[in-house]
Design goal:
201 residues, Ribosomal Protein S8, Chain: A, domain 1, GMP Synthetase, Chain A, domain 3, 2 domains, five-stranded antiparallel beta sheet, 5 helices
Amino acid sequence: MEKQIPYSIYAESTPNPATMKFVANRVLLEYGLAEYTSMEDAKGSPMATKLFGFPFVTGVFIQSNFITIMKSDMIGWEDVVLELREFVRDYLNEGGIVVANLEDGAVQSNEEIAATSVHAEPTSDLEEKIIAILDAEIAPAVAQDGGNITFKTYDKGVVSVVLRGACSGCPSSTVTLKNGIETLLKSRLPGEITEVVAVNG
């Protein structure tokens, strides 16, 4: 049996000063995403539960090959980033479980994980076009910043999206939403889009 490459982790700042993105050299979550905002919430993720053991951690977002960690203002990133990076690396290299379903010890099904990161079902050609633009042009940039975006609804010109991870609560996410996403959708679908708003998942 060939030996797996050990995990290596690097930290990357995001536009949200309260979050830091920790990127792995291997996939952590094959499908969907996982987001936790408290120790109670993190029961399905042994890794997130351990991260909430750090007194300054206020949120954990896991997608693909990265973990975005949110922290309180009680301490600066410069004081904790190395400790967190080493913790994540060691946890993974010791075979720690990233996301599981603690009820029966089985790992969460791919369907359950995927359901948290899918767009709402499109009900028109226009909604399909909106989703295609989000997937091709917006989602990769949002993931680069440690977050995720999904389509929620379209109603009389208003597109509602769900922002997660580093994008949720980020001071610059409103600017990104209006100047980036809204402008792009208006230019690609002229006359169809009046506004883009973010709603909570």
